[in-house]
Design brief:
It is built from 3 helices and 4 strands. By secondary structure, it is of the alpha+beta class. The protein has one domain (2-77): Glutaredoxin (3-Layer(aba) Sandwich). Strands 2-1-3-4 form a 4-stranded mixed beta sheet. β3 and β4 (59-64) form a beta hairpin.
């Protein structure tokens, strides 16, 4: 099973980490991927200055927001599955 880890540390939390998590949950359900991809919260991916950080497929992506999460999902997650 693959996993997406979203940082919920102080900086990412203040920049909307839980909005990103909710959007990822919605997308996983919409595309019926909840059984293939586990969504996790984590603390500090080392990119605090760059907004909400996400670890996917051993790479850290930064600056995620509720508004650009779907674009990230389609560009990086959907093409891998």
């Amino acid at each position: 099973m693959h996993s997406i880890s979203v940082c919920v540390g102080s900086s990412c939390h203040l920049k909307g980490a839980y909005e990103v998590i909710n959007e990822l949950k919605r997308l996983l359900e919409e595309y019926s991927l909840s059984d293939q991809i586990e969504l996790k919260a984590c603390f500090c991916l080392g990119k605090c200055q760059d907004g909400v950080s996400v670890l996917w497929n051993e790479k850290v992506y930064t600056s995620l927001t509720k508004e650009n999460t779907e674009e990230f999902f389609k560009e990086h997650v959907m093409i891998f599955i």
